Amino acid sequence: MVDCDVLICGLGPVGQLLALLLGDRGVSTIAIDRNHEPYTLPRAAVIDDEVLRILQSVGLDEAVLADAQVQPGASIVTADGRAVEVFRSRVGRLGHPPLVSINQPSMERTLLGALEDRPTVELRWGTALDVLDRRADHVDAYVRPVDGGPAEKLTARWLVGCDGGTSAVRARLEIPFEGRTAPQRWIVVDALVDRPLAKVPHPHFIGDRARPAVTLPMSPGRHRWEWMLHPGESPAPFLTPESVRERIAPWLDGQTADIERAVVYTFHTRTAARWRRGRVLLAGDAAHLTPPFAGQGFSSGARDAMNLGWKLAEVLAGAPASLLDTYEQERRPHVTAMQRLANTMGAFVQATKPRTVRARDLLLKTIDGTRVQELFASNIKPLPTYGAGAFAVAPGRRAGRRSVGALFPQTDRLDDRLPAGWAAVAIDDVARELLEDAGITVVEPGPDREWLDEHEATWALLRPDRFVFACGRAADVGPALSAWRRTAAPVREGVAA
Ligand SMILES: Cc1cc2nc3c(=O)[nH]c(=O)nc-3n(C[C@H](O)[C@H](O)[C@H](O)COP(=O)(O)OP(=O)(O)OC[C@H]3O[C@@H](n4cnc5c(N)ncnc54)[C@H](O)[C@@H]3O)c2cc1C
Prior knowledge:
The chain is an alpha+beta fold. It has helices spanning about 15-25, 50-55, 60-65, 105-115, 170, 235-240, 240-250, 295-315, 325-350, 355-365, 370-380, 430-435, 450-455, 475-485, and strands spanning about 5-10, 30-35, 45, 70, 75, 85-90, 100, 120-125, 125-135, 140-145, 150-160, 175-195, 205, 215, 220-230, 255-270, 275, 280, 290, 425, 440-445, 460, 470. Among the domains are: about 5-65 and about 105-175 and about 270-335, FAD/NAD(P)-binding domain (3-Layer(bba) Sandwich); about 400-485, Glutaredoxin (3-Layer(aba) Sandwich), CATH 3.40.30.
């Protein structure tokens, strides 16, 4: 007898999102957290359009946006004070703004509130994971109430460690957490402000040679500053209320700011050596840590939850368990790319050597106002694609040209018109009929017909996470459906799972 199909260890935002996605598929889920309540202080500052699309899939994009600020872009400020735009935020093919400031506790409240409406999900706060016992067809987890009391055995078919950077699950599996920890630490100051700061209309990376800094508007009424400590420098003098007030004063122009907290953070670039051992998987910070310079820590974890959620649901409904191997196969290269992006941004901001600073500023000033800047600022984070994984055929080698393996666009909220689970778009009656006969719902692509035209396709079969499983002309539907039957759970009552 199992207690649940999936046991989630850790109710940070990634565990919450995974619980929501599993709840939407009717998967019986227990999620535990050693804390009595969600972490109440802000961490993640921004999320992107992919995360908003994932939130849309659980019906929460608008609720999260209600306490968020859409950012028009991001700039690096040269050592002599010139702000050069390096990221331009336009609503593109994912249908959401690509740079949005949030307040993580507020977003988590929204996610947790929604979990109350998922009857197959049970949350247990104040419950820590102690011991893991992996068996061939289930996992026994020994958990205990943190306030005392006897340990309890929870038996699950699958267990997912969403328990953060110091993951107990990862430790129990003896999986190395490979990578590096940056020598310089950062002071992070969060404040409540009565109105947006005129001097910081959007995120600014301050390339001050003596003291690199980052400052950005958070959710409405909040602002953040971050200052780099040099390797070996003591944080204590920076953390006194007087020192914090003095440091933020030049940004305020006389307006008031209530300091919520000032803390020291160490940034890591680390990835677990493997993300699955038998029936136990890792997701979010437990699987990978990324410095915050590109705002991709939680965003990467949200993509993990989306990728893993549907695969677990399919396997529980009868798909081959090997589908779960494609989780790391798809996600790892993408996480590595986001870590690289974050570290490139970090190197730009954290430069202190005079020659490096001069070279950086020369480069920024040279591109400022040119077509190169326009191209760079609009394409710094290209649309995601996967080079290998759960697809009908191997995706093309060139990421930018991929059809199969690409995240299908939803320029005009296409996802709202698609059923949960597998679905297809088609502009070709023959293909439509073949797909529908297989139990797949097919819809008109609307403006995203353009994508089909670009890829010389008349239909696309979309995975539950909206990546393109297969696409082509009517003659290609048959082989695609054969591949789909080998990958997905058997169709129940004529409806694709
Ligand atoms: C300064 C800073 C700025 C950041 N900025 C951004 C940003 O702009 N954008 C972005 O996307 N990300 C950002 N991040 C990263 C983001 O906050 C994290 O990636 C995100 O919180 C990770 O979520 P998670 O659910 O994986 O882990 P966590 O939020 O760490 O949650 C893990 C949970 O597991 C629980 N747990 C741990 N051990 C056990 C156990 N043994 N038993 C039971 N429960 C356990 C913990 O109590 C915790 O609730 C930033 C982080 C920092 C520190």
